[in-house]
Specification:
heterotrimer; A alpha/beta (264); B mainly alpha (338); C mainly alpha (293); B: 338 residues; mainly alpha; ABC transporter involved in vitamin B12 uptake, BtuC; two-stranded antiparallel ribbon; two-stranded antiparallel sheet; C: 293 residues; 11 helices; 3% strand
Chain lengths: 264, 338, 293
């Protein structure tokens, strides 16, 4: 039973096309992501990678094509729906809630499972206290997992860049997502920080079983941690396979280096 | 979160002060002209702060919500005499809340600065509504209404001390509720929507619903504040008490006092009330009464404008934040030696 | 039918007046992304200064020059003391700062020159003139002509002068403009001065129509629906927006007004603007910003 289930991909994109006014961002993009794998999207700048992630998380709506997730299909996915499906993400330009503490940011990530209504909260009755306690416990577990406990009460905007990125990751994890989308999680980091973030990502994948789809520019990182690589260029898929396959594909080389080199 | 201990002590001290010391020490002038309007304006500021300071939705329609509360309460109290006064106030709050939700509906499509037009539209519409339709003023030709005497559960609240108790009780309860909201999941959602509404949507927060809740709750507070302002402070009012200038007044209260801060609403209201008085006194002291009211109000305008600019530049979190910073300094200061 | 046409055209012409105030906003918004709530106060301040000079027997030409100079000073002070410190803040903060600025200007204007209503006579009477069988106001026609001249002048300025080109560069891409050596404070001073002068002209026209008094500052609020319809960053949009607001306001006042009692024009344009925004959240002419997430 579970064998059949895990062969069916968790996420499938079919023939996705996206345009902004006159600019074609994505054209006929399709690929699948299997459960429990780490899949990386790579490609030159402007290839449409972030747009793709935005479509999967419901932020952009494609002009054509569909997104299938865990057996359900949707053409006009909204961010709220994507969250309910179990898709979580981080952003390229960190989108943490600057005015809140680390702890509150992470607790906020679990809002879909929050167990009391606003009226109960306003009058401190019913399930309010218990729901808050449970939400806090869930958040504390994630903070421990990412080693963020010490700064739990600090306002996120006062933290260094690397820590803010970790908080954003924590906020995405607290809801126990089935699929985690990471938009350039290593951007702006030095080698040591990249190693640490890679470990966190692998921990998430192995210990929590979360499927990961990430955008990354550092090819070494990609080759190290991914099971599956998809290459985009000018909004089209030019490579789709294991890291080794993709590395040797002439189409991919052409995309990165241009035609002359590929011929040579 | 910092331990509840100091907060509980602070709250207890405040309550003792407000309940035991003030009524005994304050004279009629202080009660009627300073404390009562201070509490009511703080309530309005609290309402606006929930919407603008915490949930990040700028509103210039505060006066319209207050007017709705006042006129609804008036019509309920005068047309349905059997209805208890507090219920009339609550009805005012509810009517204002409904209007607030209506004003917030466009936020589904309209973002950022453009949203100001919605509250501006509501403000002008309500101003016109209560002026054009005499029915709201009990068909009084001048548009002025006189409120009925204040009786609750057989007790009279028609003297300054009665006014104070009534307003204090209502404001205290609503402040407690506001504080609960701010420290709860709903408060977190407000802040999330304020800081990054795209990210909020992505983590599953129902953004429109949260905004509408903010509009509704905030307008309820402003509606009750309006009812109190009309019934307790003014005693009789007409549509001119609820013009755009009053919306700006409440906005200034929260900018100066501190946006996103409950204490800030109170600090700002105190400032807003006391500054003109202080300026009056200064003017008479320095210029021996050579300054008339008109000129004084012009200078007040200038001072307020400068203060707004100053706070926006230097300390966007207002006086409340300056106060907290001072508190921290005072706590640390003795330890600085080590 | 003739009456409808007359009302319509009358509304259009009245709308031109709104456009003129709106143009002042557009200038500042294009160059710095700020919605200048103080524009109305600038209109009042300039008109009041001019009128007070005239009442002190300063000649018309002299009063014009002095007032223009005063508006330049106001622009420089606004940039130096306020804008400079709010460069990277969100638009809402900047808006509230201009709100504060408007209070300062209003208070100063009235403290200096008093709160009475002043009459302003430009020598153009508001008498009806017959054109193509329609009775139109001579004053409105004059105002429209002035607006047309203004737009042409601004257009020439933007396209033919160095400062104008820098302004367009900044409006298009501030960072790129900076990297080319355009100095932002200087641009802002120019833009605020221009806005102040445009406001001055608007103030003269409005003032001579309804007297120079405090309610002139409320004109700024009418500019908002104009800008929303026309887009905050388009001069052509300001003209079209003004025409639409003026016409619809007049039509509503004449045809719907009697049913519900007068005064609809106070709120009708705003609801119109909200309605439009619901359909096109970036305004009719505005640039739909592609938000990169």
């Amino acid at each position: 039973m579970s064998g059949i289930a895990s062969r069916e991909p968790l996420l499938r994109l079919s023939d996705i096309s996206l345009s902004f006014k006159a600019i074609r961002a994505l054209a006929g993009v399709g690929f699948a992501v299997r459960r429990h794998e780490v899949c990386a999207i790579i490609g030159p700048n402007g290839a449409g990678k972030s747009s793709l992630l935005n479509i999967v998380s419901g932020v952009y709506r494609p002009q054509a094509g569909e997104v299938s997730f865990d057996g359900r299909t949707e053409r006009q996915l909204t961010p709220h729906q994507a969250a309910k499906w179990g898709i979580a993400r981080t952003f390229q330009n960190i989108a943490v809630f600057g005015g809140m503490s680390v702890l509150d940011n992470v607790i906020a990530g679990g809002n879909l499972a929050f167990g009391s209504t606003w009226i109960e909260q306003a009058f401190r009755i019913g399930r309010a206290a218990r729901a808050e306690r449970e939400a806090r416990e869930r958040a504390e577990r994630v903070l421990a997992f990412l080693r963020l406990q010490r700064c739990r009460h600090q306002p996120v905007s006062s933290l260094p860049y690397g820590l803010q990125k970790r908080v954003e990751l924590g906020r995405a994890l607290v809801a126990n997502p089935k699929l985690l989308l990471l938009d350039e999680p290593m951007a702006g980091m030095n080698a040591a920080e990249k190693r640490e973030m890679s470990e966190h990502i692998l921990d998430v994948n192995r210990d929590l079983g979360t499927t990961v789809l990430l955008i990354e520019h550092d090819i070494r990182v990609v080759m190290d941690i991914s099971d599956h690589v998809v290459v985009l260029d000018y909004g089209r898929v030019v490579g789709d396979g294991t890291p080794a396959d993709v590395q040797n594909s002439p189409d991919v080389i052409r995309a990165y280096l241009g035609t002359k080199r590929a011929a040579a | 979160m910092s331990s509840r201990w100091p907060a509980a002590i602070k709250a207890s001290l405040l309550i003792i002060f407000a309940v035991a010391i003030v009524p005994w020490a304050a004279d009629e002038y202080w009660l009627s002209a300073i404390l009562v309007p201070f509490l009511i304006l703080s309530l309005a500021g609290l309402g606006l702060n929930l919407l603008t300071g915490f949930a990040g939705q700028l509103s210039v329609g505060t006066a319209a919500f207050m007017a709705t509360g006042a006129y609804t309460a008036y019509n309920v109290a005068s047309r349905l005499p059997g209805v208890p006064l507090l219920v009339a106030f609550a009805a005012g709050g509810l009517a204002a809340a409904l209007l607030g939700v209506f004003a917030g509906l466009p936020s589904w499509r309209i973002k950022g600065f453009y949203l100001v037009v919605c509250t501006l539209a509501v403000q002008f519409f309500v101003e016109w509504l209560f002026t054009a339709f005499r029915w709201f003023s009990n068909d009084n030709s001048s548009g002025q209404v006189e409120v009925p005497p204040l009786r609750i559960a057989g007790h009279d609240f028609n003297d300054p001390i009665g006014h104070y108790w009534l307003v204090l009780a209502i404001v205290a309860v609503l402040t407690w509720v506001a504080r609960n909201i701010v420290h709860s999941e709903l408060g977190r959602r407000f802040l999330a929507v304020r800081d990054m509404d795209t990210a909020a949507a992505v983590i599953g927060i129902p953004v429109l619903r949260t905004k509408l809740l903010a509009f509704g709750i905030s307008s309820f507070y402003c509606g009750v504040a309006g009812a109190l302002w009309g019934f307790v402070y003014l005693g009789s009012f007409d549509p001119r008490a609820w013009e755009l200038g009053r919306s700006f007044q409440v906005l200034f209260i929260i900018i100066i006092g501190g946006m996103g801060s409950i204490a800030g609403s109170f600090v700002g209201a105190a400032f807003m009330l006391l500054l003109p008085i202080a300026m009056s006194h200064l003017a008479s002291a320095w210029l021996s009464g050579a300054v008339d009211q008109g000129t004084l109000s012009n200078y007040q305008k200038i001072v307020f404008g400068v203060l707004i600019i100053f706070f926006l530049i230097k300390e966007p979190l207002g006086l409340a934040s300056i106060g907290r910073a001072l508190q921290r300094r005072v706590r640390i200061w003795p330890l600085r030696q080590w | 039918m003739g009456y409808l046409l007359e009302t319509l055209v009358g509304g259009l012409l009245a709308g031109i007046m709104y456009s003129m105030v709106a143009i002042g906003f557009v200038l500042i918004y294009k160059a710095s992304g700020v919605f200048n709530f103080a524009q109305g106060a600038m209109v009042l301040f300039s008109a009041l200064t001019f009128v007070s000079l005239i009442e002190r027997n300063v000649s018309f030409g002299c009063a014009l020059i002095i007032t223009a100079a005063v508006m330049v000073v106001v622009a420089v002070l606004a940039e130096r003391l306020v804008l400079r410190f709010l460069v990277n803040r969100p638009p809402v903060t900047l808006f509230m700062a201009t709100l504060g600025l408007s209070y300062v200007l209003e208070g100063t204007a009235q403290a200096l020159w008093g709160a009475d209503v002043h009459g302003l006579d430009l020598g153009i009477d508001d008498v009806p003139v017959s054109i193509l069988g329609l009775r139109l106001s001579r004053f409105d026609l004059f105002a429209s002509a002035t607006a047309a001249v203004l737009v042409v002048l601004l257009s020439l300025f933007a396209n033919r002068t160095r400062i104008g080109r820098s302004l367009r560069a900044v409006a298009d891409d501030p960072l790129a403009a900076l990297s080319l050596g355009v100095r932002l404070p200087k641009i802002w001073r120019w833009v605020w001065t221009l806005a102040g002068l445009v406001g001055f002209i608007a103030g003269l026209l409005w003032g001579s129509r309804s007297g120079v008094q405090f309610s002139l500052t409320l004109v700024v609020l009418k500019a908002m629906p104009v800008l929303i319809i026309g887009g905050f960053d388009s001069i052509e949009g300001a003209i079209v927006g003004g025409l639409i607001v003026g016409a619809s306001e007049k039509l509503a006042e004449v045809y719907v007004g009697p049913i519900v009692g007068g005064g609809i024009e106070n709120w009708f344009p705003y609801f119109l603007a909200v309605g439009l925004l619901l359909v096109r959240p970036a305004g009719l002419f505005g640039d739909r910003a592609v938000v990169r997430v």
